C-alpha cells in the first residue's frame, strides 16, 4: 500500500481535532487514496503528529458534500466558492497513533523518505519503502522524547 503525508495547517489545529474525531480528512488537491493506505499527518510549523490508515478510497466532492465536513472553513458556507477552495479528495480514516510532533524539519523528512516536493505540494505520495520508514518513526518514538498517545 502507498503512504501519504497530509498537511494540517498551522492555524487549523481544530480541523485536526474534528477530523480525527469524525474519522475523516479532506484535501483540496485530488489524490488517489486507497483503502489500506498509510496516512501521516504533518502539522505545519511543528512536524509529524499522527499516523492513520485509510478506510476508504478517495471520495470526490461529487460523492461527498464537502460542506458536511466537521470543520468550518475560512470562507464560511458561501454559495459561491472558488475552485481552489473546494475539497477534491475526502478519505475516511482510523487514527492509529498520535504523538507530540516528531522533531524533523520538512527537508529532513523529504530527504529521509526520498521525495522531492515541498509542503505546499502535499498530500505527498510515498512508496512502500518510505511508508515503512515513516511507520517505524511512530513505532520507535524517534525524533522526540515525549510519550506517544495510542489511539483505540
Automatic annotation (TrEMBL):
<protein>
    <recommendedName>
        <fullName>EVE domain-containing protein</fullName>
    </recommendedName>
</protein>
Amino acid at each position: 500500500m502507498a503512504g501519504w503525508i497530509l498537511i494540517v495547517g498551522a492555524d487549523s489545529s481544530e480541523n485536526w481535532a474534528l477530523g480525527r474525531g469524525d474519522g475523516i480528512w479532506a484535501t483540496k488537491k485530488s489524490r488517489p487514496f486507497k483503502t489500506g493506505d498509510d496516512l501521516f499527518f504533518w502539522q505545519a510549523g511543528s512536524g509529524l503528529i499522527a499516523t492513520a490508515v485509510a478506510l476508504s478510497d478517495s471520495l470526490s466532492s461529487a460523492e461527498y458534500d464537502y460542506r458536511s465536513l466537521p470543520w468550518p472553513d475560512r470562507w464560511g458556507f458561501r454559495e459561491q466558492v472558488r475552485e481552489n477552495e473546494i475539497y477534491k479528495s475526502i478519505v475516511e480514516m482510523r487514527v492509529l497513533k498520535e504523538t507530540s510532533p516528531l522533531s524533523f524539519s520538512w527537508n529532513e523528512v523529504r530527504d529521509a523518505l526520498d521525495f522531492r516536493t515541498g509542503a505546499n505540494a502535499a498530500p505527498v505520495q510515498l512508496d512502500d519503502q518510505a511508508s515503512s520508514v515513516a511507520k517505524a518513526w511512530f513505532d520507535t518514538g524517534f525524533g522526540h522524547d515525549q510519550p506517544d498517545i495510542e489511539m483505540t
